[in-house]
Write a structure and sequence with these properties.
InterPro entries: CD225/Dispanin_fam, IFITM_antiviral_protein. With 117 residues, the protein is mainly alpha-helical. It has three helices and no strands. It has a domain at 37-106. 54% of the residues lie in helices and 0% in strands.
Length: 117
Amino acid sequence: MIKEQHEVSVLGAPQSPRPMMSTVVHVQADTVVPDHIVWSLFNTVFFNYFCLGFVAFAYSVKSRDRKMVGDVMGAQDHGSTAKCLNIVALVLGLVMTIGLIVLVALYPGLFYVRIGV
């Protein structure tokens, strides 16, 4: 392998008598706006009662789009709506799933269908 050598020269003091000026660039950090897209996708796949998971997913995508455009207020609004819909979808999904399990445990013959007598 060829090893490159770089020389560093010492510049020393500034050559002009005027004071040295510096420029400061402030880079605005991205504002963190949660869009809850993973939670919405989970609710869409597993707890999509009354299509609330799908609607939450749509609002999450809208929130992400608003964030990409730079509309922070719109992104926060859509993200908040997606969060509320996700909470309702999750609670309804858990209650209905637990209710179905309890119903099947208490009445095991309720969901059997007789075919041909």
